[in-house]
Amino acid sequence: QAVVDFERLGEHAAAFQGHDVGFCCLGTTRAKAGADGFVRVDRDYVAKAAELARAGGCKHFVLQSSRGANAQSCFLYLRVKGEVENLVQAVGFDHCTILQPAVLLCKRRESRPMEWIAQQFLSAVAWAFPTAYSVPVETVARAMVACVLEPGEGKVRVLENGAIHELGKA
């Protein structure tokens, strides 16, 4: 495990050397980091990490993004996620897999009351419609590993919530 300073990521290029696969789940919230901080973490840090990984020999990059990601969106969150998807694809990996999960179901250390309420509701909905609006983080993690073990056809593969559920069962 290498600890890096994301503000000086270029100084840590050695940490990105010699890896065939890169997994990226980096992200923050606008509430926690402000609008500028959110863009810096969710787009700029991720794009720089992808560039360093590619320069270090990474052949398959797996990015956790978000359902609805769209570089043309008027919503900051979805626009930034769409922009970073485009930037990562442009790096030129042999394989690039982008996962676009819906609401992530997980336990957090910090208190996010509105997210907790939404997760309680979506957990109940997930009982009846398991792949519609949410996905447990464990399922996303299993899907990320599975897509590396069987990368599929083509250079870029985008997995939406239903496909994440399916792949995450393996």
TrEMBL record:
<dbReference type="InterPro" id="IPR036291">
    <property type="entry name" value="NAD(P)-bd_dom_sf"/>
</dbReference>
<dbReference type="InterPro" id="IPR016040">
    <property type="entry name" value="NAD(P)-bd_dom"/>
</dbReference>
<dbReference type="GO" id="GO:0051170">
    <property type="term" value="P:import into nucleus"/>
</dbReference>
<dbReference type="Pfam" id="PF13460">
    <property type="entry name" value="NAD_binding_10"/>
</dbReference>
<protein>
    <recommendedName>
        <fullName>Protein HTATIP2</fullName>
    </recommendedName>
</protein>
<comment type="subunit">
    <text>Monomer. Forms homodimers during oxidative stress. Interacts (via N-terminus) with elongation factor EEF1A1 (via middle-region); the interaction is direct and competes with EEF1A1 binding to guanyl-nucleotide exchange factor EEF1B2, thereby inhibiting GDP for GTP exchange and reactivation of EEF1A1. Interacts with nuclear transport receptors XPO4, IPO5/RANBP5, IPO7, IPO9 and KPNB1 as well as GCN1L1/GCN1 and LRPPRC probably through their HEAT repeats. Binds NCOA5/CIA.</text>
</comment>
<dbReference type="GO" id="GO:0003824">
    <property type="term" value="F:catalytic activity"/>
</dbReference>
<dbReference type="GO" id="GO:0005737">
    <property type="term" value="C:cytoplasm"/>
</dbReference>
<feature type="domain" description="NAD(P)-binding">
    <location>
        <begin position="4"/>
        <end position="151"/>
    </location>
</feature>
